[in-house]
Design brief:
Blueprint (H helix, E strand, L loop, with lengths): L2 E3 L2 E8 L5 E7 L9 E6 L4 E7 L2 E7 L6 E7 L9 E6 L3 E7 L5 E8 L4 E8 L8 E7 L2 E7 L7 E8 L4 E6 L9 E6 L3 E6 L6 E7 L4 E6 L7 E8 L3 E8 L2 E9 L4 E7 L8 E7 L3 E8 L2 E9 L4 E7 L9 E6 L3 E7 L14 H7 L10
Antiparallel strand pairs: 1-2, 2-29, 3-4, 4-5, 5-6, 7-8, 8-9, 9-10, 11-12, 12-13, 13-14, 15-16, 16-17, 17-18, 19-20, 20-21, 21-22, 23-24, 24-25, 25-26, 27-28, 28-29
Length: 373
């Protein structure tokens, strides 16, 4: 255990020194294992697959691209392989497909190169009138590409530049929609816009929700969001955090928090004992991880962890069933992946919890000299 602060313990998942880790997300790569895996991407173009077993983590390193990787998503895009595939891309313009197998093995291959464009964001969605899912790639310079498996019997993917964009999309996620309806993808850009992307036909349609004279960097979707009532959170480079709620088809925007400049990670989840409380976490260039909680009297903030260097990504995951809350995985310039979790029994009402050795070591006073062990 690295530390314990404000009721949160910090455990090390992976440490690689001074090589930054820019993205970390949780995916169910191996359903036979039960616990979701963490996938992180680093500054040397490597995909790191972190598998948990009884609280211990094993890391498999894949694909040395030679330049940073950033975009990451999972989905059953390629019908030529069984199950879902992991997709990633980065500075070199390369896009990779990683295939997880039921025996725990992994394959990877390059499926596209987007020329002199950096791949910043990837999203799996069904956006074209063809069978199956597609892979959307948002690039710098600003562009929207759609990748799909070839249908002429040949190997590889077809790559189509759908649109030139005025600003680089730095984060994107699928919104909940009514079954059978066209997907909606929320995006935030360096140009400062929160926009909704949809494909009513074959051409993209953009709907502006909110804009600032600051770059926007991260998005998070509130738990329990529905097509009728959807809540998003966004970060701005000046340090402000915003809440956006769609109800009856209209968006309402609220300034939640004004913190240190350069927030680079944002995640929503259940982080309080009371499931009715609205909570999210943010990290960034200040190295602190802060918990924001919406109570009856408004929003409050507390620092729950301080990393050894600037943060760059944070994500919600569920890997510890001993509490009633979600866990948090974070990464950044410190070159490590850290897992933050509540204590055993937290949020479980009257459940009996027995602390493990690490918790007992923190909670217990030092043994007197000469005490038997």
């Amino acid at each position: 255990m690295l530390s314990e602060r404000a009721g949160w313990r910090a455990d090390l998942v992976h440490d690689q020194g001074d090589v930054g880790i820019w993205t970390v997300k949780a995916f169910d790569l191996f359903p036979q294992y039960g616990t979701p895996e963490l996938v992180s991407l680093d500054d040397r173009g490597r995909a790191l697959i972190h598998v948990s077993y009884s609280g211990k983590w094993t890391t498999t390193t894949l694909q040395a691209d030679g330049a940073w990787l950033g975009g990451l998503d999972l989905g059953d895009v390629d019908p030529r392989v069984t199950g879902r595939e992991l997709y990633t891309g980065g500075k070199s313009g390369n896009v990779y497909e990683i295939v997880p197998y039921p025996d725990g093995g992994l394959d990877q291959r390059r499926i596209a190169n987007l020329g002199r464009r950096e791949v910043h964001t990837l999203v799996v969605a069904d956006v074209l009138p063809r069978a199956g899912l597609e892979l959307l790639a948002f690039t710098s310079p600003g562009g929207l590409y759609v990748l799909a498996p070839r249908t002429d019997g040949l190997d590889g993917f077809e790559t189509l530049l759908h649109e030139e964009l005025g600003g680089r999309v730095r984060d994107a996620l699928l919104l909940p929609v009514i079954a059978g309806a066209a997907p909606e993808i929320a995006t935030v850009s360096r140009a400062g816009a929160l926009e909704i992307l949809s494909f009513p036909g074959e051409e993209p349609r953009w709907t502006r929700v909110h804009s600032l004279a600051q770059g926007r960097g991260r998005l998070a979707l509130a738990p329990g969001s529905t097509p009728a009532r959807c809540v998003l959170y966004t970060t701005a480079d000046d340090g402000t955090i915003w809440r956006h709620e769609r109800a009856a088809g209209l968006w309402h925007d609220e300034l939640v928090y004004a913190g240190p400049p350069g927030p680079r990670g944002l995640a929503a989840g259940r982080f309080a004992a009371d499931p009715a409380l609205e909570t999210l976490v943010v990290c960034g260039y200040g190295a602190e991880v802060e918990l924001l909680t919406r109570g009856p009297d408004g929003w409050t903030v507390e620092t729950i962890f301080v990393d050894r260097d600037q943060g760059h990504w944070i994500t919600t995951c569920e890997v510890d069933g001993r509490n009633g809350t979600d866990e948090i995985a974070l990464s950044g310039y410190g070159g490590r992946v850290v897992l933050l979790s509540r204590a055993a029994g937290f949020g479980l009402g009257h459940a009996l919890a027995r602390p493990g050795p690490a918790e007992r070591a923190v909670a217990s006073p030092a043994a007197p000299q000469g005490a038997q062990r």
